[in-house]
Structures are given as C-alpha cells and as structure tokens.
Write a structure and sequence with these properties.
Length: about 160
Amino acid sequence: MNAENAVITQSDKGKTTVIIYMKNYTNKVQSFVTENNINALKKDPTNIYQKSIQKVIKESNLVINKRQTQHLIQKKPSASNLKAQLKLHKTNNPIQPVINNRTAPAYKLTKHLTKIPQQQISLNNQYNTNSSANLANTLKDIPIQDNHKMITFDKIFIR
C-alpha cells in the first residue's frame, strides 16, 4: 500500500472497505473543505474552550453536584480530527465527513446534560423507529390510502 501511495478507508454505507490513492483521497477531502467554506484556524481554541467549560461546570451546582464535577471535565482534551468515508452510491464518490468528538472539551458534559431531560420526560415512542427493517414490517400491514402522507426524519452527524 505504501509503495503505491494508497490508503484504506470505509464507505459511508454498507460497511465496504475502499482502497484509494492518497492523492485522490486528499483531493476529495480538499474539495469538501472548499465547497463548504471551511477555513483553518490560526490558533487551536481547545484550551480556551476547556477553561470555559470548567468554569461553567463549577458554577452549575443546581444541575451538577460536586462529586460529578471531576468526571465531567475532559482530562486531556484535543481538537477533533476529520476522517472521510467515501459515498460510493453518489457520482464522483464525494466524502462523508466523520468526526470523533470523544476528546473534545464538552463531550462528557454534553453526554451528562442530555441524560437529564430523558430522565425527567417520558416520551411515547409508538411513532418512532430506529430501524428501517422494523418500519417496513410495521407498514406492510397498514392499509395506505392515496390521500395519506408519510413523513420521515433522519438523524444526521449524530454519533
């Protein structure tokens, strides 16, 4: 692979492994960056965010108790890296950006804060599904009239 200057990556659907020349991969990522007006920062803001989050956590004693504080502060925060998965089902195989935020300063705090409303509010999930196969099985027995409409919402970039 190194002699041929190739890289191994994944497609964004279907769990397919893709081998692509590094130059082509880099060009696809650069095209994505350019098309989406993404600019490089002059300075890494991670430490500034970390200090701000630490301050907020310490001041939020109504929502966060003192024992939780140490577990919600990221020990070694770092900026997230962009990885690219190829969209094999699209013309010219553009990329699907994948960003792992587990080392971001707010990751642990965000996970904690999203649990609070979930613990307090009980939602009726009879109209929700997390699997297209389950949805298809449910819909196959429902009579659908010409005047019926179905709306679907897809989670995007939530990992």
